[in-house]
Amino acid sequence: MKQTIMKPYVAVLFSVYKNDRLGWFREALDSILCQTYGREYIHIYLGIDGPIEVEIRDYIKDNKKLFFKVIESEEKIGKPRIINRLIECFENEEFVFKMDADDISFEKRFEKQIQYLQQYSDIDIVGTAVMEIDENRKEMFCRLYPQNPYSVRDYICKASPVAHPSVCFRRCVFDTVSGYPDRYVYNEDLALWFLCLSKGLVISNIETPLLYYRVTESFYKRRQKGAFSEFVIYMRGIWSLRGLSVNLFIPFIRLVFRALPARFVRSIYKSNLRSKLN
């Protein structure tokens, strides 16, 4: 008689808000449900952040069995706070994945990231390279991130060392850090990476892209809106990791870049310059 091999349960942190589109939301959700890891081991924790489109609400209602737990805030409270509410509801999951409502996971993403963490017991958080796509799902650019944990600590002084929606955490990470710093609505992920590193947690990345990361017009606008909070996070974070350092000049350069017109920033993102800096 063939024995059934039990796998660790995983939680997926998933949130939606008023600007999300049903088509993209369904693509993101389908990419979770079609994982080779096994749908029966995946618990989807959905946070509804304030009022959302009627068609998305109806879809969630009609497909409520797809979600392990749903938490809703009548007013928009911001992604970090709604995600933290979900984290408080975890049950018996061993690993935690992050997923945005406009991105798409490769079908072997969960399997590969869990295998990685099982192989490297000293790693607490693992992200992946991502394939950036436009609104029509056209591939634009493969973004790589540092693989060596020591390189991650160096890299964070100039840019985020992880693609936020690509990460997989060990569940125990949230015993060390209670959740996302909720003071920074647009840059909660960057604040979390600095916090994790300051607590001695180890971050790495897989060199293979395992996520389609959608870059839209709102992507550039969010970066402009969060420019000053990003500056504050970098100044405090670099100081906590390095103290007085030449790296403290980098946040000023990033702040100036964020202040540039969106069309100029967009042209840089679509130019060959990124491949040289990647």
What is the strand and helix layout of this fold?
Blueprint: E1 10-16, H1 22-33, E2 42-49, H2 54-62, E3 69-73, H3 79-87, E4 95-99, E5 104-105, H4 109-119, E6 125-133, E7 139-143, H5 149-155, E8 168-170, H6 173-176, H7 188-198, E9 203-214, H8 217-225, H9 227-242, H10 250-258, H11 262-269, H12 273-277
Parallel strand pairs: 1-2, 1-4, 2-3, 6-9
Antiparallel strand pairs: 4-8, 5-9, 6-7, 6-8
Helix pairs in contact: 7-9, 9-10
Per DSSP E runs of 2 or more residues, the count of β-strands stands at 9
Task: Assign a percent range to the helix content.
Answer: 25-40%
Biggest sheet character: 9 strands, mixed
Question: According to CATH, what is the class?
Answer: Alpha Beta
The separation of the N and C termini measures: 51 Å
In angstroms, what is the radius of gyration? 18 Å
The CATH homologous superfamily is called Spore Coat Polysaccharide Biosynthesis Protein SpsA, Chain A
**Which regions are unreliable across 5 or more consecutive residues at pLDDT < 50?**
none
At the fold tier of CATH, the topology name is Spore Coat Polysaccharide Biosynthesis Protein SpsA, Chain A
The averaged pLDDT comes out at 89
